[in-house]
Design a protein that fits this description.
The chain is α+β, with helices and mostly antiparallel strands and 508 residues long. Helix content is 27%, strand content 27%. It is built from 9 helices and 25 strands. The chain is globular, with a radius of gyration of 31 Å.
Length: 508
């Protein structure tokens, strides 16, 4: 789909606006939630959707489809970096405990590797370095040169003083938000020791989200048997802000090259997709599929809350006939010369069923006189007209709600509880998890915040369930018929387990 000049310019401007709105919404390689606005382009409603930062590589194609419609079309896509947008990254190294000099050395070295890779991937990106001890200290501010970053991350020593990590992270966040970039990334390298328990506190996550900052955390294990909760705290910080989590482990002592590449792609990933909505009925749910360079594809959805008829229809209706004048007294078929035409500037006659027009100068006076006369002669009509209009509006609203509620059921999830509760599946893309943003929510601690997604294949009509939990090593995963599965085509009656939640998948 070739973008016209005005369309490309508008999408480029929208990218800057949407990047700020969606900076905290980075997604992983298996699911994403687009953030969309609706605008009128070429007299027709269009969606302009920001994908946020996405781990998965370079997006090659973005395809869209209105739910329930046939056919898939390609959207116009502008990548985050193609329009000159940039990210600011603040690398923060935890160096509070002097007994962990090895961890501090590894963390600072790998932070330098991550920054250099992101610098090469995006020449406009900007970087800074800070450290945590008993307080937060900026070593080099955002925008530092390559040489300054190298000096700040070389030979870093463990300090031996420990502060409140949550408060210090918020101090670092304040420095990062001073950067003038469309995307802000806080890169935290630590071992998640007990003094770092504040990482999981709601106020830290809230501060990051409010500032629209994505957290990328790198966990360095001092020992192979490092306690799980310490590492999990770092993972949750990234997960709750939509970022990335890397577990370096204790064997190699450094990040793998693939992880470094993934971070560089993540910092500059995503972009803006622009596509036309249905002209006749633009309101509804639209599915977007991102296709990556490596062949993988992910699907997201958004609801366009646009009234029907937005934009200019292809065949405009003929102009409405001019309003007829209220009938006056019979004076014959001919109007005397110099007399006003019937209804021109005249008052409506009592008993007339026609409402006066409001476009002429005396329209409001006409309306007042008409109501006064009708109230004296036919009060029921005066009361009945507004009441009837309200009844009609209520009927239309009731029909709209009823139509919405009659969405066809595409499948059922039959829970393995005492009542065999059935949960309907009414969309072709359904997110399942513990978080309130999911389409189907299970409030069970064994279910991940974003655990799985159900998508229906347009050709076969079969549903596919995909595991979207972010850290497979610590994930309860998705079991289909008792076997762990990252992606499975579901047959009627298949048993699915998400942690402790178990259900049968049934086609209607």
């Amino acid at each position: 789909m070739t973008a016209a000049g005005p369309l490309r310019a508008l999408a480029a401007l929208a990218l800057g606006f949407l990047a700020l709105a969606g900076a905290a919404g980075a997604q992983d390689a298996t699911s994403f939630q687009p953030r969309c606005i609706v605008a009128t382009l070429d007299n027709a409603p269009h969606a302009i959707c920001e994908t946020g930062a996405i781990a998965g590589g370079r997006v090659m194609h973005v395809r869209y489809q209105k739910e329930g419609a046939t056919g898939v079309a390609e959207a116009n896509f502008l990548s985050f970096t193609s329009v000159g947008k940039a990210s600011s990254v603040l690398a923060v190294i935890d160096r509070g405990d002097r007994r962990r000099q090895r961890v501090v050395s590894l963390a600072s070295g790998d932070a330098a590797r991550l920054i250099e890779a992101a610098r090469v991937a995006g020449p406009n990106n900007r970087f800074g370095v800070g450290q945590l001890a008993d307080r937060y200290e900026t070593l080099v501010p955002i925008g530092a040169s390559r040489e300054e970053v190298a000096r700040a991350t070389t030979g870093m020593r463990a300090d031996g003083t420990i502060g409140d990590s949550g408060r210090l992270l918020i101090d670092a966040l304040r420095q990062l938000t001073l950067a003038q970039s469309e995307r802000l990334v806080l890169l935290l390298a630590s071992d998640g020791k007990p003094e770092d328990r504040a990482y999981g506190r709601d106020d830290v996550v809230k501060a990051l989200r409010d500032a629209k900052v994505v957290a990328v955390t790198v966990a360095f294990r001092e020992r192979p048997d490092a306690p799980g909760p310490e590492i999990a705290a770092l993972r949750r910080l990234a997960e709750d802000t939509g970022g990335l989590f890397f577990d370096v482990g204790s064997q190699s002592g450094r990040l793998e090259d693939a992880a470094v590449t993934r971070f560089a792609q993540f910092v500059g990933s995503g972009g803006t997709a622009t596509f036309p909505l249905n002209r006749v009925d633009p309101r509804g749910r639209y599915l977007l599929t991102l296709e990556f360079e490596n062949g993988r594809a992910v699907t997201g959805a958004f609801f366009a809350d646009v009234p029907a008829g937005s934009g200019t229809p292809a065949n405009p209706p003929p102009p409405a006939p001019a309003p007829r004048a209220a009938p006056g007294p019979a004076t014959g078929t001919n109007t005397p010369a110099g007399s006003p035409s019937p209804g021109a500037g005249t008052r409506p006659q009592p008993g007339s069923t026609e409402l006066p027009g409001l476009m002429d100068r005396s329209g409001l006076d006409n309306l007042a006189d008409w109501f006064s006369a009708e109230w004296r002669q036919r009060p029921t009509l005066v009361i009945g007209l507004p009441a009837g209009a309200l009844l009609i509006a209520a009927g239309v609203a009731w029909l709209a709600v009823r139509r919405k509620r009659r969405k066809p059921i595409l499948a059922w999830l039959e829970l393995a509880d005492q009542n065999r509760t059935r949960v309907p599946v009414k969309a072709t893309a359904v997110r399942i998890g513990r978080h309130s943003e999911n389409d189907i929510r299970f409030e069970n601690r064994s279910v991940h915040r974003y655990h799985a997604i159900l998508t229906r294949d347009l050709a076969s009509g079969r549903f596919v369930i995909s595991d979207v939990s972010k850290d497979l090593e610590h994930s309860n995963g998705v079991l289909v018929n008792g076997e762990m599965s990252l992606k499975s085509v579901l047959a009627d009656g298949d048993t699915v387990e998400l942690g402790e939640v178990k259900f049968r998948f049934l086609y209607p």
